[in-house]
Amino acid sequence: MIEQAVRGMLGEVLLGGLIGDFWDHRVLKTLLGTIMTPGTLSSERSFDDLIPGCRMPEDATYQNFVASIEEIPEPDSSVLLGLSINAEHLHRVDSCQQIIAGLSELVPNVAAPVPRCTLLLLCMNVGV
Amino acid sequence: MLNLYNEHVLPDSIRQDKTWARQLYAVSLLYSVMLQRRKYGACGWSTSFDLDFTDWNTCTGYIKNICDQARDSPEFSDPANMIKVTRALTVLVDLFERGKLCFVDSGCLGTLYESPCTNRTLQTHVSETFSHFSS
C-alpha cells in the first residue's frame, strides 16, 4: 500500500503540483501508473510498457541498480519516453534550425543569404 | 538517471532498506523520463514547468520517511492510517510553507490563489484529507 500513498502524493502534490496543464497532468498520472505499481516494484513485472528491457533488479543492491540503468538502450530516444517517433524527427529539425540560425548570426557577412524555405528544407533533410 | 545514482545515492542507504531502494529506482526513472521529455518541447509537455534536482530530492525524502514510518510503526503500516497521517502531515506542512493561507471570517480558511496549479494542489489536499477524516 505504500505505492498507493506514494502515487497519490507524487501525482497530486510533489510532482503534480508543478504541472498546470490538465493533459500534462494526465500524462504524469499515466507515467506514475506505469512505473510505480506493486508489480514493477517487486520485480514481478518489467517496465516493458514504457522502456523495453528495463526491469527492477531482483536483488536490490547498488551495483545491480547501476547495472540495470546502464542496460537501458538509447536513453535519449523519444520512444523510450512514451513519445511518438515523429517527436524525435521534429526535435532534430528544430535543433538544425537553431544551429543554422546561430551560424548566420555569428558570421552574417560570410553566410550567403538563403531563402527561408530553402533553409527549412535543408533542416528537414539534415534532421532525417 | 545514472548521474543521480552516481552522485546523490549512497550505497549504504540502499543496503539498509530494500523497499526504499526499489521506490528510489522507480522515482528516479520517473524523474528522468519527465526531465527528458522536456527536451522535445511541446511534444513532451504542453506547458513548461520547473523541474530540477530539488524536486527529485523532495520526492525521495518523502518516500524515505514513509518507508521508515511503515517499518517502525505497525499502526502506520495499516494502509488507511498511513494515507490519513501522511496526507494530514503534508497538508499542514505544505500549507504553512506556501505562506499563502489566511483566516477569513469565522475561522474559514481562505487562500490567495495565484495559479490554477496552486489552486488544484490545495483543493486536492483539503478535500482528500477532510474526506478521509470524516469517514
Describe the model:
- The complex is a heterodimer of chains A (128) and B (135).
- Chain A is mainly α and 128 residues long.
- Helices cover 58% and strands 0% of the residues of chain A.
- Chain A contains six helices and no strands.
- Chain A has helices at residues 2-14, 22-35, 38-41, 62-70, 85-106, 116-127.
- In chain A, helix 5 crosses helix 6.
- The longest helix of chain A has 22 residues, at 85-106.
- Chain B is mainly α and 135 residues long.
- Chain B is built from six helices and two strands; from the N terminus they run H-H-H-H-H-E-E-H.
- Chain B has a two-stranded antiparallel sheet with strand order 1-2.
- In chain B, a hairpin with a 3-residue loop joins strand 1 (101-104) and strand 2.
- In chain B, helix 5 runs antiparallel to helix 6.
- Chain B is flat and about 45 Å long.
- In chain B, 24% of the residues are buried.
- At the A-B interface, helix 1, helix 2, helix 4 and helix 5 of A face helix 1, helix 2, helix 3, helix 4 and helix 5 of B.
